[in-house]
Amino acid sequence: MQSLISRFLVVLAMFTTVVNAQMTSNVFERVFLVQGPVEGGTAFTIEVDGRQYLITAKHVVKGMKEDDRIQIRKNDQWFPLTVKVFRCDDPVDIAVLIPPSQLSVNFPLEATAEGVFFGGETSFLGFPYGITTGLKLAGGYPLPLVKKATLSGMIPLVPDKGSIIVLDGYNNPGFSGSPVVFRDSTKSQVTFKVAGVVVSFLSEAGPVLKTEEVAPAQITAEDKQESRILQYHQKSYKITQETTDFVRLNTGIAFAHDIAFAVDLIRKHPIGPKVADDFQPK
Predict the structure, then answer these.
(1) Is residue 274 assigned to a domain?
(2) Would 239 be classed as within a structural domain?
(3) Among 29, 77, 124, 261, which residue's beta carbon has the most beta carbons within 10 A?
(4) What's the DSSP call for residue 144?
């Protein structure tokens, strides 16, 4: 009964989001929580020339052999999935996995960054820190979390082949391998495309602070200028002071690699399972 209720809620949510031109089932039902030998992450399916492929970040499958198994989350359990692994050449952090059979629906989702624009809204879907909501998609796969990001820019990574997609949005561990999707505004109907694969975020070293309680008269102009003051109940004040220790901080700038790299690798190894339009997840 619970799974039926969950399924109803997902379908209802999808219907609502379609009306509002937001995320649709052709994206949701392609995204999977996976576990490699070293770390976990996210993977998603795309089709090229009528065959399906599972895409993730290369570091998610670190340590895997060419023919190996990943773990995929389904019905709150981990299940082994035998795949053939192909990796993009460095510095591209994308891996193409060949599953033994079709994994997901093949509703239209073109793998291209064509139509994306600077300042445009994108989303990436995945499982930060392995978090799942309890809602399940068809087949018992967990519903991914969705994060919004602004496409800030693109930096050439391999000349004439693809770019680093720069996103203004927080990427957390577990989102590695997530699809970056966007709505093609040139289409009259709601049309999503996948532009890239989430691979990392820009970090910075921030000083660890200590605090000291002070009286208002002890606060200097420099303290105010440097924003060192913490105020409590409008009476108690503390001044922050830097220590010699540092902590890694997330700047909120995320990086993805162009899906064109994955498509190019697929065309060199066009051996994915053929897709069927009447596919039903099991």
Answers:
(1) no
(2) yes
(3) 124
(4) P
